[in-house]
Amino acid sequence: MATVPARLRRDVPDIRVYPQSGNRPMPSTEHGRSQRTMAAILEEILPEDDIVVVELMLLLDRHNWTRQLTPDLFVALGVGPLDPVYRVLRRQYRLWDEEHVPDLVYEAASPSTFARDSAGKKDDYAALGVREYVQFDPVGGLLDPRLQVFRLNQWSVYEPVPAEEDGSVRSVTLPRYDWVITGYLLRLRDRVTGILVPTPLERANAEAARANIEADRADTETRRADAEAARANSEAERAHLAEMETERLRAELARLREAPQADDR
Q1: Which positions ≥6 away from 146 have C-beta within 8 Å?
Q2: Domain that residue 71 falls in
Q3: Cα–Cα 20 to 30 A to 1, which of 20, 80, 108, 151?
Q4: CA distance 255 to 262
Q5: Is 196 helix (H, G, I), strand (E, B) or coil?
Q6: Is 235 within a domain?
Q7: CATH number for position 162
Q8: Neighbours of 91 (CB within 10 A)
Q9: β-strand pairing of 58-59 with 93-94
Q10: 73-76/104-108 β-pairing
Q11: Is 69 a member of any domain?
């Protein structure tokens, strides 16, 4: 029997009736770039079935849509790119339909939100079962230390993940990586290679540099090939001239041999 699309089923409400996140103004340019960079580097390392979303509303209760949270960013592993009911890009994240709580939540500290992020929302995420909660202060002055990472313990309470000597903190959700502060950005560093996951701009610059190197190499090879061709042409011309000179000398020698015979007659 063919599956009836969700939008045509009477027992499924139209997706547009659910509340959606609005566009919240960024406290600063640094906050906006920090958030975009975080999303980009997570998308760089995660497969397609793991979603990275910015300011997507979490609806917690099927019967009470006012119970909601809107993280700056969250990661949900293995849920796939589309809404599980409507098979479109998500407009909100409904926990009762997803049946999977976010694995990681990231909040950037701002003067208007950091107190709530550190208390009420933090407790809400712990109650939901979010494994890793990351708070970061892009510009400083609100959190001390600027990077604070929490993991959920067996009692569903967050405990801080200790920082390494260099200030980095190991990720709970992504154990191959460390959280690292670079200026007003929060980055991920590969624990095996010690290399930062590149930002889109860094990747574009690296690809452009590689393309320039390849172009220079190709240009060098072209010049070398042209030089080899010129050398070969020169050798061919020299050989041709030598052959012509040889033929001239043979003709001259033949003429000289015939000259005495003519005189004897």
Answers
A1: 136, 137, 140, 181
A2: 6-197
A3: 80
A4: 11
A5: strand
A6: no
A7: 3.90.1570.10
A8: 16
A9: parallel
A10: antiparallel
A11: yes
